Amino acid sequence: MNLTAWRYYAGTYRGYRAALTGAVLGACGQSLLVLPLVLIVRRIFDSYIPAGQFRLLALSAAAMFLLNLANGGLSLWVRSVSLRVTKLVIRQIRNDLVDRLYAFPRSYYDQCDRGILHATIVQDTERVDIMSNALVAMALPSALASLALCAVLLRLNPLLFAAMAGVAPLLFAADRWLRRKVKIRVKAFRTSFDAFSKGILHILETMDLARIQTAEPFESARQKSRIEELRVTSGSMAWLETAYGLTQSSIAAIGIMLILVLGGWAVGRKSMSVGDLLAFYVTVSLLAGYVRNILTAVPQIVMGSESLATLYGLIASRHLPAHSGTRPATGSGSVVFEAVHFAYSEKPVLAGLDLEIEPGSTVAVIGPNGSGKSTIAYLIAGLYRPQRGRILFDGIPYDELDLRSLRSAMGFVMQDPILFSGTILENIAYGQPDAAIERVVEAARLATADEFIRSLPDGYQTRTGDNGVLLSGGQRQRIAIARALLRQPRLLILDEPTNHLDVQSVHDFLRNLAAMPHRPSTLIISHDREVVRHCDRIYALEGGRTASRVAAHAHNL
Q: Structure pTM?
């Protein structure tokens, strides 16, 4: 058991102690209701039936019915409170995970398996939710009720209670042995389930690739093998959970048989009345129900404990953001690289790079594929940090800047624009859902997107499809540029704009940009020398360094 993870889990209940205390008191109240029930049973068989007092018998039966109603109502209230608290706790854990995902640096996602990460967060939080329900709504109230019932049994007949307690060591030994087995099966099930979840996500993400490469048989066979593994591990785990419950029930049955044998012997010797025996038996039956609740919860708690440890590993991860300053990014959008070195793992990309983007200027970085052009954009956006050298935004080192403030001053259009399933309007206004429609239209006009959007049957309400599949590459690129411009950035980054736009379209957009009253600084990253001929300054990269820095309209480009 990961004690640190459990301390974190216990801490999530800190704000709900009053509600939990009420649930605990309610569970204790359920136990107290058992005592008058037991006394009524004893009185019925020892007094009312032998004396033929059937009116009192009927009144006693009515009282038992009312006590059961009260017990049921109290049980529903305890469960309602417990469920409300556990759902709030799971919400907090999921919120913590979402915050952590946004706090991870880009380097973390470069190395992690996103399919497994997705399955871990979605499935493991659900398992912790089930565990929380089993622990707080079932095991804890049942444990408290069981203690109270044991006290009643001890008071009714110490000898029978001692005989029943003699079975407890056997029960606990079986529980410990089977719990270890369940834990092993749970780990195997989690691994195969995560692989299955990842596989289905892979199918959905690479459907076109599989068809184009005629890899459907290969992929189908691979996923079916994972499904078969999941069948085996889930079936094995389910069987062991059943065996666990049956074993514990069988051991509990031994205790009940002992009670009947010893109790019957005591009744025969006149050292115990029939009413006492029945009262003891009724109490044991109630206790057995609570014990069954606890035993049913154990496999769920074991599974949830494994998931909790995994989730806490994510929440407590030491992966830090690229920069963690606090100063707001102010100024006019200038950027300076000073002898910047950067490498992905052991592969050097930039080696002592110097670069400057002046306020309001349009700067281009050109070079062959793999020369580090896109890396420059990621460094400017604060997604990575250089291993050596430094970067400044408006004269302030990145290590002093607040990343959210820095990025809010930028507009970044990636090589492959990301669109989500929604309308064109929603995609342009992403991050600024309250933006006025007039601002959205103006941003689209500057991005040369307004004309094609208005030509669509639903205009700005046109659905884009998942990742913009219903639009062309050029249309997606224009929408992404409009989204960046809606932020009114002080610095605009265009990474390989000619991937989806022709050179003339880029030049048309740059002319619109130059006519803006508050023209942002602009960085264009491209391998196409033709697209950058209207830039104020052009940097050519070779070997991770600036090979040349030339003025615009240079005839050798």
A: 0.77
